[in-house]
Each structure stands twice: as C-alpha cells, then as structure tokens.
Write a structure and sequence with these properties.
Structural class: alpha+beta
Number of domains: 1
CATH architecture: 4-Layer Sandwich
CATH superfamily: Endonuclease/exonuclease/phosphatase
GO molecular function, one term: hydrolase activity
Protein name: Inositol polyphosphate-related phosphatase domain-containing protein
Order of helices and strands: HEEHHEEEEEHEHHHEEEE
Strand order of the largest sheet: 3-4-2-1-12-11
Domain Inositol polyphosphate-related phosphatase: 48-390
Strand content: 25-35%
Organism: Penstemon smallii
Radius of gyration: 22 Å
Keywords: Hydrolase
C-alpha cells in the first residue's frame, strides 16, 4: 500500500478514554459518603472501593504444565487485589472433537488448581518473607515488634467459573468478601460454526457485591486478517451483547443484559488487527512506533467510526502487540525467512480489556511475558466503587 495509507485512519491513543467519574478511594471519603446519602436514622448507603485484577490469555490449546508460573499475572505493583478475574481462550485445541464438547472438566480444573496455588502461595510467601526480613534487620539493629505486620494473610476462593469449548473464565475473591457476594450466574453465547457453536463466542459471569452488580465478558471473536474480516468481529460482538441473557431474579431487581449492569468489563482475544501492510507493520513494531500502529488499529478505528463498542473505554496501550509469537520465543511468527507453505501473521493487539459505564477507574494496563503460547497475556487493574446499604 502507499505510504499515505499508513496515516489513513487517524485515531488517538486515548480513544478509549479514562472515565471522568471521580472515584472515591479512602475510608474518610466513605464516611463522608455515608453522611451524604443518609436519608433516615434507619439506614445509609456507604461507598466502598475494591481493587480488581483482570487478565486475559489465549493459551493456544496448550495444557498448562504443573510448574507453570502465574506470578506475573498476579503482579499488581506489590499490592494484592480484592478480586481476580482470569479469562482464557483456547484452553483446548479448537478441533472438531472439542468443538462439540462444551466443557472439559479436567483442563478447567487444572487451570483453577494452578490459580489457587499461585494466589494463596503468593500471600503466604509474602508474609514469610516479610517476617524473615524483619528478623534479619533485628540482627543488625533491634526493632520493636509492631501490630502492622500481617500474620494471617487472606486466602482467596473461587466464586464462579465456566467453560465453553476453549473459552474459560474464573473469578476469585478474598475470603472476607464472600459474605457480601450474591447471585452469581453465567451466560454463554456461541458465535462460531453456523453462528452458534462455541469455538468462538463468549462466556459472561455476573454477581452482586454489596448493592452493586458486576458483569465480566470473556470472548473469542472471529479470526482472520483479510480486509473485511473486522466486520465479522463486529457482528460477533453485537451478537454477544444481544444474546447474552442472565437468569431473571425479579425479587432482586438484577439486570439480565450485559449493559444493564453497574460495572462491566470485557476481556479476551478480540482478534482485531492493524490496517497496514505486513512489512510496514513489522518495521514499525521493530522500531516501537506504537502511536502510528495504534492510529491504524482496527478496534480503535471501528469504534471511532461507530461500528462497534460504542461508549466503551480502554486505557492507553503502551506495550508491544501481543500476537503472534513463535512458541517459546520472543520472536514474532514469520519474522525469520519464510519457509515453504508457512502462513505469515502480522503482529497485532488481538488481546484486549475494555470497560463500560461509571464507577471504574483503570490504573494499570500491561502485558505479561509468558512464552507458553503464541499470544502474550494482558492484564488490567481497576479501582471499583460499590454501594453498601448499611442498616
């Protein structure tokens, strides 16, 4: 394509802008919000904040080894989240046999076992290291013991998980929050073969934390890098929004549709590519020209044109494209001399995390560097606001 086509679609890096809603994050402000919302002596509505960690990873049909290190997906800049949401795509190979079997309990249980071990081991190890450092310091300069040392780190437990063929989502919370979580449920939408099978589509989960509803959509949209393939991805997203339906619970006044929830986060292999020739894309990736690449990112372009995800948000991307890598390598697929019969794939930001509505403040967006598959995982950290009805 001509050089002018590089700049054909001018899209700013912050087209998915951070929500301007001013989130309240301190206990002092929580106390003031109780006063602001008090309408009688019998009850009040408090505002509480929680830290969410959301990760997405296409694992390419590879079963995780027993010693797989998930620490990088738990990296919250040395701070533990209250809620962890892990979304996976292709946890099984997308062959004909697997497509006809929606769930494989062995593989999903293996992922959950690794997550449980990583979450709870991280807390225990961190506590032991903290104590060891304190003992070592006391040998040099004696210190008084203080009550601020956390001697009983919190455990995490899974509140809901669901698999549909290769798509899998699992949600973990601090054990102390369990009593405040209610009405968890799931909804699956197949968009693959015949527009219905689960090789592509979504698994959505929702629950209510205190008085606020949360919805997480884990999806794998249509693949393909030919011109026009993005329209099928747009169609998949529209079908997911239209067809996802949670169980009706009229006495609880819970929403049934995705966008009717208070806090909504969409994660997954959305498969959007870059509107540039392969050689140009590779050159710009090599030189880390993220801004030019993002100006030609399909998802941002389709959004600004009003074709998909109207009103959704994404933080600025400041990391390299997450697809497609040679397995167990830092080299992009096809970056070496092309072998006969080899299909080349231009690098792209296929793996994304976006969000909708108020009451969410994204504070981190990054990728991890595991070489397990041809995708790199992505992670987003949010501060989420929730209403708490006090009596």
């Amino acid at each position: 394509m001509a050089a002018s086509k590089i700049f054909k679609r001018r899209v700013t890096n912050n087209i998915f802008s951070t929500d301007s809603y001013n989130l309240r994050e301190t206990s002092v402000q929580i106390q003031s919000s109780k006063q602001a919302y008090s309408s009688s002596d019998k009850y009040f509505i408090a505002q509480e904040t929680f830290k969410l960690s959301v990760s997405s990873w296409n694992v390419g049909g590879i079963s995780p080894p027993d010693n797989l290190d998930l620490e990088e997906l738990l990296d919250n800049q040395n701070s533990t989240a209250d809620i962890y949401v892990f979304g996976f795509q292709e946890i099984v190979p997308l062959n004909a046999g697997n497509i006809l079997v929606p769930e494989n309990s062995n593989i999903s249980m293996k992922w959950n076992s690794l997550i449980k071990q990583a979450l709870n081991k991280r807390m225990v190890t961190g506590d032991r290291l903290q104590k060891a450092e304190m003992v070592e310091t006391q040998r040099i300069y004696p210190l008084k013991s203080t009550s601020c040392i956390n001697s009983s780190p919190p455990d995490f437990e899974c509140i809901i998980s669901k698999q549909m063929v290769g798509i899998y989502i699992t949600v973990w919370i601090r054990k102390e929050l369990h009593g405040y979580i209610n009405h968890p449920s799931v909804s699956c939408v197949g968009c693959g073969i015949l527009g219905r099978l689960g090789n592509k589509g979504s698994v959505s989960v929702r629950f209510r934390l205190h008085e606020t509803s949360f919805c997480f959509v884990c999806s794998h949209l249509a693949s393909g890098e030919k011109q026009g393939d993005e329209r099928q991805r747009n169609t998949d997203a529209a079908n997911i929004l239209a067809r996802t339906l949670f169980p009706a619970e009229p006495l609880q006044h819970l929403p049934m549709k995705i966008l009717d929830h208070d806090r909504v986060i969409w994660l997954g292999d959305l498969n959007y590519r870059i509107y540039l020739p392969e050689a140009t894309t590779r050159y710009l990736v090599k030189n880390k020209e993220w801004s030019i690449l993002l100006e030609n990112d399909q998802l941002k372009s389709e959004l600004i044109d009003g074709h998909v995800f109207e009103g959704w948000n994404e933080n600025e991307i400041e990391f390299a494209p997450t697809y497609k890598y040679n397995k167990n390598s830092d080299d992009y697929y096809g970056s070496n001399i092309k072998r006969k019969g080899e299909r080349r794939r231009a690098p792209a930001w296929c793996d994304r995390i976006i969000w909708f509505g108020k009451g969410l403040k994204q504070i981190q967006y990054n990728r991890a560097e595991s070489r397990l598959s041809d995708h790199r995982p992505v992670q987003a950290i949010f501060i989420a606001y929730a209403k708490d009805l006090g009596l």
